[in-house]
């Protein structure tokens, strides 16, 4: 297996290097007429940070380059400037090169470092038929689809509107950015879980679960009367984790 690209492992501000893709469409109610409801299509652009693994989703009305540019400008207005963008060779991405003042960089043309510039956006296209090179943001797109499908099922048979779809997309972002991005510690004294949302907001989310120990007289006779801490190796991290256990005490 080859090494990860440099933009995946180089520290930097969130969303400095992103992978983008489009998914959809969904039918939303455009307007009400005498004959019924008129529907139109909506698509979504997902921006996946390659370093912090955070995600951002914007809704667009069509698959034109101008719609993508508007979605990209909304994204940069919220998340800040972008240095490098990776994507496939979508027609709306290629058509937006001139309007975005971006420099197209094709991986098979040579080293990426030769095309590095001090200012502007560098847009790197993956070679054709190489979806495996976009696995980091393809995975995020799949997760966003599954979360959105669950939300649409919970809505039932109600008609989907543009406003509701945009709200759903931001809720999808919140769920994606709240997932843990490192092995979870089983130590109750270390409840902090690092997530993309923590890196974006600089806020630590503490768990509110408090372990309480209620031992009956019968259980005290069986297993002992005192609780002590012992390092117990278990979990995916493979290191001893200190857990509060009950030590068996012999009577007499």
Report what the structure shows.
Helices cover 31% and strands 26% of the residues. The longest helix has 21 residues, at 135-155. It has 252 residues and is an alpha/beta fold. It has a domain at 6-177: Ribonuclease H-like superfamily/Ribonuclease H (Nucleotidyltransferase, domain 5, 2-Layer Sandwich), CATH 3.30.420. Helix 5 (135-155) packs across helix 6 (162-177). It is globular and about 60 Å long. GO terms for molecular function: nucleic acid binding. This is Integrase catalytic domain-containing protein. Residues 9-199 form the Integrase catalytic domain.
Helix and strand arrangement:
Layout lengths: L5 H4 L7 E17 L2 E14 L5 E6 L4 H15 L4 E4 L3 H5 L1 H4 L1 E5 L14 E5 L9 H21 L6 H16 L18 H6 L15 H7 L3 E7 L6 E7 L6
Parallel strand pairs: 1-4, 4-6, 5-6
Antiparallel strand pairs: 1-2, 2-3, 7-8
Helix pairs in contact: 5-6
């Amino acid at each position: 297996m080859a090494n990860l690209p440099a933009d995946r492992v180089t520290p930097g501000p969130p969303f400095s290097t992103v992978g983008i893709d489009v998914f959809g469409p969904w039918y939303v109610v455009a307007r009400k007429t005498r004959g019924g409801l008129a529907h139109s299509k909506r698509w979504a652009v997902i921006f996946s940070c390659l370093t912090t693994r955070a995600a951002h989703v914007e809704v667009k009305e069509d698959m034109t380059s101008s719609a993508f540019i508007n979605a990209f400008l909304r994204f940069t207005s919220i998340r800040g400037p972008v240095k490098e963008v990776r994507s496939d060779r979508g027609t709306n991405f290629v058509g937006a090169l001139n309007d975005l003042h971006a420099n197209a960089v094709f991986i098979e043309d040579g080293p990426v470092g030769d095309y590095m510039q001090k200012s502007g956006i560098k847009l790197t296209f993956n070679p054709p038929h190489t979806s495996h090179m976009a696995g980091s943001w393809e995975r995020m797109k799949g997760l966003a689809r599954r979360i959105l499908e669950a939300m649409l099922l919970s809505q039932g048979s109600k008609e989907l509107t543009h406003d509701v779809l945009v709200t759903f997309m931001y809720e999808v972002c919140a769920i994606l950015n709240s997932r843990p991005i490192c092995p979870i510690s089983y130590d109750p004294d270390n409840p902090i879980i690092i997530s993309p949302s923590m890196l974006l907001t600089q806020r630590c989310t503490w768990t509110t679960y408090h372990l309480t120990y209620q031992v009956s007289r019968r259980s005290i006779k069986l297993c002992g009367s005192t609780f002590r801490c012992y390092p117990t190796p278990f979990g995916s991290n493979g290191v001893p984790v200190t857990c509060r256990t009950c030590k068996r005490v012999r009577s007499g």
